[in-house]
Amino acid sequence: MLGAITGDIVGSRFEFNNTNREDFELFTPECSYTDDTICTVAVADAILRGEDFGKVLHEWCRKYPNPMGGYGGRFAEWVASDNPQPYNSFGNGSAMRVSPIGWLFDEWEDVIEEAKKSAIVSHNHPEGIKGAQCIAEAICWLRLMRFSKSDVERKVEKFFGYELPPMRDIKKIGSEGHFDGTCQETVPMALRCFMDANSFEETIRL
Questions:
Q1: Within its chain, how far is the Cα of 80 from the centroid?
Q2: How far is it, in rounded angstroms, from Cα 173 to Cα 175?
Q3: How far apart are CA 127 and CA 95, in angstroms?
Q4: pLDDT level of residue 53 (50, 70, 90 thresholds)
Q5: Among 9, 46, 22, 60, which residue's Cα sits nearest to residue 175?
Q6: How far is CA 127 from CA 13, 56, 89, 90, in A?
Q7: 186, 184, 185, 111: which is closest to 142 by C-alpha?
Q8: By CB count within 10 A, which of 16, 91, 92, 137 is most buried?
Q9: How far apart (Å, rounded) are the C-alpha atoms in residues 56 and 49?
Q10: What is the largest CA-CA distance in the chain?
C-alpha cells in the first residue's frame, strides 16, 4: 500500500504533463495524492471494517472530493450519485486501488474473489475485473510464494492472458506521447516495468 501511494504521489505531476526522462526528481511541490490514493485507502478500510467495498469507496471519495487531478469523468459521476451503480468500466482505476487485497488475504481464491468484489462496484467490465485480479494476485504470489519474477510473468500470461510488452516498445509508445488509461494496456506495461527494474525506485522511474 505504501508503495502504491508513493508511486501515485511521485507520478501525480506527470499524469497530464508526461516526461520521457528517468532522472526526474521524485518529489516536488507539484506532487500530491490523487484519487488512486484515496481509493487504495478505502479498499483497505473496507477490508479492515468488514464493509462493502462500494459503500466505503463512496464514503472516502466524498470525504476527499478534490484530489490532485480530480476524479475521472464517469467515476466522478459515480461519486456524485446518491445511488452509485457500476458503469461497465475497464479503466485502470480498479487495478490502481487493489493492492491492499494482495496483502490482507493469504489464499489465492480469496484474493481473486475480493479483487473482483472491489472492482465490480464501478469497474464491472471483464477487463476491469481482470486487471484488478491480476495485480492483487501478483502481489500475493510475490509475498507468499516467493516466486521469481520470471515465474510471475509466466503465471500472469497463463492465468490472465496478459503478454507483457518489451521495455523498448513501452519507451517507444511513451516517446510518441501516447496515453491510455485502460487495464488491458497499462497493467501489462506496469508489470513489465517491475519485471525489468532492480529496485522499487527504478520501477517508478521506468
A1: 22
A2: 5
A3: 10
A4: very high
A5: 22
A6: 27, 23, 8, 5
A7: 111
A8: 92
A9: 9
A10: 45
What are phi and psi for residue 91, nearest 5 degrees? -70, 160
DSSP H or E stretch at residue 104: helix 99-104
Percent of the chain with pLDDT over 90: 88
Model's pTM, two decimal places? 0.95
CA distances from 91 to 39, 65, 82, 140, 183 (A): 14, 20, 22, 22, 5
| Single-letter amino acid, residue 125 | H
Give 49-98 as a DSSP string. Answer: HT--HHHHHHHHHHHS---BT---HHHHHHHH-SS-------BTHHHHT-
42 and 97 Cβ atoms separated by less than 8 Å: yes
Q: Under a CB-based contact definition with an 8 Å cutoff, are residues 76 and 64 in contact?
A: no
Q: What's the residue count for the chain?
A: 206
DSSP state letter for 23: S
All cell numbers assigned to 79: 461519486
